[in-house]
Amino acid sequence: MPFFIAKKIVRSILKISCVMGQKVLILNADYRAFAVCGVHKAFLLVYLNKAEMIDSAKNYAIRTITRTFEAPSVIRLMSYVTVPYKGVMLSRQNIYKRDNNKCVYCGAASDLTLDHVLPRSRGGETKWNNLVTACKTCNARKGDFTPEEAAMHLPYQPYKPSFVAFLKEFSGIEENWLPFLQKQ
After folding, report:
1. If you placed Cys at 45, which of 1, 50, 181, 183 could pair as Cys (CB 3.0 to 4.6 Å)?
2. Is 95 within 8 Å of 134 (Cβ atoms)?
């Protein structure tokens, strides 16, 4: 295979993977933010008439051999999906996002760990309101103490973000998502 043909194939694969790596906002039938998914899943939902495309990505398209489709950016489900409570899942990455990927005590951005504000040995639970991001140095210095006992300032009380607030503030939203997220 000549080099220039292989180079074209690689370029087209990179373009496809770039589009397929984009995020799409899924709205419920009542236009409330429901979830975020990839372009691949969103395109399938639209193609199978399970959802309608509300807004498309401006700089991207999905190309086949014979056709070109707009890449979705915001879609709305055709039928309403009942969700008892949509919360943000507690995970290390989501705690890091909430705390801007920095140690809450010193502001360092490397060697990050999770710190229990009230240590587990004293009955502290692994919940949103008891976990913060800390660098290894601050976490070791704090040890088995509360921040007050260790003379370390906690700049804010840890909290559990709402789903919409988490999308707005921490998930890198697209500009065309804002009208749908501001309603909530």
Report:
1. 50
2. no
Sheet holding 33-38, edge to edge: 33-38, 23-27, 68-77, 51-63
The token pair at 156 is 């804010």
Structural domains of the chain in order of their starting residue, each with its CATH number: 3-85+163-181 (no CATH), 92-142 (1.10.30.50)
The Cα–Cα gap between 93 and 122 comes to: 25
Higher pLDDT, 142 or 40: 142
Q: 83 vs 28, 32, 177, CA distance in Å?
A: 10, 12, 21
| pTM more than 0.70 | no
Secondary-structure percent of the chain, ordered helix, strand, coil, rounded to 5 = 35, 25, 40
Per-residue tokens: 123: 């009955």
